[in-house]
Amino acid sequence: MNKRSLILPVILIMLISLACQALTGSQATPPSALGTAIVIQPSLAPSRTPRPTRTTIPTHTPSAGQPNSSSGSSKPVKTAPPEPSPTPIGSYTNNEAGFKFQYPPDWNIDSQSAGHVTINNTSIGMAFIILVDPGDTLDAVATDLKDNTFKGEDVTIADGKNVTLGSGESAKVKELAVKSTQGTLIYRVAFTSFGPHTYALIAVGLPDTLKNQADLLAELYGSATFFPPQPFGTPGDQTLGLLANGDPDASDLDPALTTTSAADYVGLLFSGLVRLGPDLQVNPDLAESWEISADGLVYTFTLRSNLAFSDGTPLTTKDIIYSWERAADPNLKSPTVATYLGDIVGLKDRLNGKTDHISGLKAIDDHTLVVKVDAPKPYFLEKLTYPTAFIVDQNTVTDNPKDWVFQANASGPYMIMKYTETRSLILERNPKYYKQAEVPYVGYLLDAGGSAVSRYEDGTVDILYLGGQNAERVRRTDDPLHNQWQSVTTLCTTFVQMNNNLPPFDDINVRKAFALSVDRAGFVERLTNNMDIPAVTILPPAMPGFSKAISAASYNADQAKAALKASKYAGNLPEIKLNASGFGTQGNPEVDALVATWKQILGIDVKVEFLDPTTFTESARTNPAQMTLYGWCADYPDPQNFLDVLYHTGSDFNVSGYSNPSIDKLLDQANVDLDPASRIKFYNQAEKALLDDFATVPIEHGVYDVLVKPRVQGFVLAPLHASFVPFLSLRK
What we know:
The chain has 21 helices and 31 strands. The chain is α+β, with helices and mostly antiparallel strands and 732 residues long. The chain has three domains: 3-43 and 89-226, Mog1/PsbP, alpha/beta/alpha sandwich (Protein Transport Mog1p, Chain A); 237-445, 3-Layer(aba) Sandwich (D-Maltodextrin-Binding Protein, domain 2); 488-704, Dipeptide-binding Protein, domain 3, CATH 3.10.105.10. The strands form eight sheets. It has a seven-stranded antiparallel β-sheet, with helices on both faces. Strands 23, 24, 25, 26, 27, 28 and 29 form a seven-stranded mixed β-sheet that branches. The radius of gyration is 29 Å and the shape is globular. The model is unreliable at 1-16 and 25-87 (pLDDT under 50).
C-alpha cells in the first residue's frame, strides 16, 4: 500500500461528518475509529529481489547441564526526565508527528491521534485538519480525495492561493469544491513536508465562510510549524526508540500470562534467575551462580546479594517461589506454565488444584533456592529464560489484582515511567536493578501515525523490524537505508499440522496426498516475493540439530493424486476442515492459496475455520480439525522446543492433536539424555519419523529484516526474538 492510499481510511468518514456540521450547523462527532492504527499489508506481486545474506549465527550446543556463574554490580544513577513545558491555551502540539499550531479559544479539538488532529467551530461551520503522511504530493492528495473519498460526488479541483506557514514557507494549495443538494463545501488543502514526513492542512467550510474568515485562516496556517518528532518527552540522546504494534494489555505485561518473548515489554520490566542473550547463550540474571546434581535432577541457585524490586523491597527466594506458584495457580489459567515450568516436581499438582504449593521448590535461605525436576532435562535452564519464570512482587499483585502490571514493582532492568494510551509507553531504568542498564529510557511508539519507515528516518525509532514492501525496499543496494539493514533466517517455521486421530487423516495416504499437493517453493514465491525461505524441515537452519540429510517429501501432484486414490477413503471423503488464525471477513492469502491448491490437485473443498488470534492455540487444541495452519518461533535454541513441544502427545502446543507412541518414545529419550551428541541423534530420528508419517507439512522459514541506527551499539540480530535491550548502549 502506498502512502497516498493511507489518507482514505482516516479521513473518509471524518470529512463527511465535517460536511454535515458545515451545512447544517449541527454537532456531529467523528467516529472513534479515527484513532486506530493503519495496517499496511505486504504486496503479493512477484519480485526479483535478491535473497539476503544470512547473518552469522553464534555457535550454540544444546546444554549438557553444566553450571555457570557470574557476578558484578554497580550503583545505579537515575537520570531525571525533563519537566514538560506548560501548554498555552489555544496551542496544540503533536510531539509524535512533529507539528504545532495555535487556534482561537472558541475552537475545540474534535479528534486527535499520533497522525492527525481536527479542530472545529460549529457556530460558524468551519473545521481545520492536519494530517501526517497523507501522500507524496499535493496533486496526489487532491486526486485521492476526488477519486476515492468523494467518489460519485460532483467535485472540481482548482489551484488555490498559496498560504504562508509559520516557518515563512509559501505552501501550495488545491481547493476541492464538493457540490450536493444542500450546497457546496470547499476543502482548502495546503501541503508541505519536513524531513521524511508530509503534511496536509485542510480548511473545511462553505465558500462564504472561508472568505469571511480569511484573516482567521491566515493565522491558523501561519501558526503551523514543523519540527523533528519528539514523542517520548525524554532526552533523545538517552532514549532508545522502538515501534510497538498497538497498546499493551494486562496480559502482555504479566509474565505468567504473556505469550510473547523476553524481548518484549515483559522482559524489560521483569527478570528471572537467568536470561537468554542475543548470542543465544544462557546468562546469569538474578541468580549469580547455580549447581546441578550429577543425576541432573536438582538445581541449586544462589541469588545475587542485595537484590531488590524497584521500590527498594528486598527480592529473595520467597519471591521466586511465590511467582512460580502464582503462575501455576489454576485460577490464573496461564497458557505457558505447564510447558515452561512443568518439569518442576509438584508443579502439575499445583496446576491441577491438588495442592497450594510446588513441592519441588525449597528456599534454604533468602539467597539459596533448590529446584527439583522430574527427570534430567538438559534444556531446563533455557526454559527459565521464558517470561513465565520471571519474578513479580506479591504485595503489588494482591493490592491491585486487575491492573497491577501498569504500576508494576519491577524486578527487571526497567520500570514504567509513563503510559499514554494509543500514543506511547515509556520505560526508565530501574535504579534498584543489580546492574544499571546503559540506556536510560526506552520509548515504545504505539502508533506510527503513518509510515513506520518514516519514523525510523526521522529518528523516532532506532530499531525497526520490517516486512513486505519495506523489507524488499531496503534489501536493494541502491536504497539509502541499505547500509543500516540486517537480516537473518529466523528460528521460525510455518506448518500445516496434521491430526492423525480424525478421519480421513487417520489414513497415512490421505495425509500424504495433502502434503504432496503443497508446492512450498511456489507458495513462498507467490506470497512473500521470496522474502522468506521454503522449508523442507521442521527445525529451522539455525537451530542446533538441524540436518540437511532430513527432508520432507517434495511437491508432486501425480503422487498426491495416487496416494488419495490408494487410501481407504477414496471416493468417500468426509468433510475436511482447516483451522487458521484470523477472522473470516479478513481474508488470508496463505489460507486461500492452500485451499485453492487442494481443490485444484485433489478436487477437494476444504472448509476453513477461522479462530480468534488471541486465543488461537487453546481454541485449535480444544476444537480440533484435520489440519491446522500454525507458525512457531523458538523461545530457546534447543530442538526440544520444536519437536517435543509441538508433537508430543498431550503437549499444550500440539494444536493438531497428532499422536504417535513410537515418536513419543524417541522424544522422551532425547529429552533426558545428558550427552549432547546422543540427544541430537534422537531428535534427528524423531524429526525424520514425523516427516515420514506426514505429521506436518513445513512450508516456510521466516526471515528477520531489521533497520538499526548507527548510534545503537551492541545490537546482535538473533534468529529468535531474544532479549537485546539490556545489552545495548547509545553512542553519544
